[in-house]
Amino acid sequence: MSEFSIIQSVQNSMVKHAYSLKKAKSLKESVDFLCEGFHLVEEALASGLNLRYVFATPEVEKTDAGKKLQAECRRQKTRWVLVQAKIIDYVSETATPQGILAVVEKPAARWPAPETQIVLCVDQVQDAGNVGTLLRSAEAFGAGGVLLTEGSCDVFNPKVVRSAMGALFRLPVQEKLDWQSAMEWLKANGFQSLALTSHGAPSLVGMALPQKTALWVGSEGAGLSEELMAACDAKVSIPMTGKVESLNAGVAGSLALFWVRNQKPVS
């Protein structure tokens, strides 16, 4: 059984708070973010995050997956709240909501561990899907953390959270940095920075990589600034054929991470 009577009104204080997290300004000022769908709620619970409460419809509560999540919420003393489907529709950002979402406390910002060999640096990438893809690829290809500069999309944007598929819950992430501060930290911790660019740079394929690599990926349109690239140790590119001039940030960063990872021993 749920701990509360079924919520029917969008005026409920918990519903209002959840809804506010869809708005960029409220999300930035809040210590919480939205986590939607069976998989992400399960990942948040498994990652040890602090879930303020979980909203679920009566239909979800009857499913095997819903019963499993409810049992885990009970074990972790997380509030499980029954709501009408219209509440999920009101709060949800997806076209076909799964009937379950959670309000979760943002994990604390963390720097990568000293022994990390690969760090992904994201500079002013504004597309939420690209940022989520980069976070997911960073975890998949062995990066020990992600640094994002001011001007990049908020990592707790609902679309980023969905695209990252749980990687955000596990990776050390620092955001809203100025690139100079990020570069200072990288140099102090023994990293050499590679600036990923689409024009006039040696191919990443076949390049001898430094022991500790920081890979910089720039914005979708302008790429990395000349000043930032000049501060890096080298410029690199992904070899392409045909008439394609460039790849989007998510694809380019993912391919580069894959190649860098496969030049290093897999831990």
Compact description:
The protein has 267 residues and is an alpha/beta fold.
Would you mind describing this structure in some detail?
The chain has 267 residues and is α/β, with parallel strands linked by helices. It has two domains: 13-105, Ribosomal protein L30/S12 (60s Ribosomal Protein L30, Chain: A); 118-261, SPOUT methyltransferase, trefoil knot domain (Alpha/beta knot). Helix content is 37%, strand content 18%. The chain is built from twelve helices and ten strands. The chain has helices spanning 13-20, 24-29, 38-46, 58-62, 64-75, 85-91, 128-140, 158-164, 167-170, 179-188, 226-231, 249-261; strands at residues 32-36, 51-56, 79-82, 100-105, 118-122, 146-149, 173-177, 192-196, 213-217, 234-236. A six-stranded parallel β-sheet has the order 7-6-5-9-8-10, sandwiched between helices. Strand 5 (118-122), helix 7 (128-140) and strand 6 form a beta-alpha-beta unit. Helix 7 packs parallel to helix 12 (249-261).
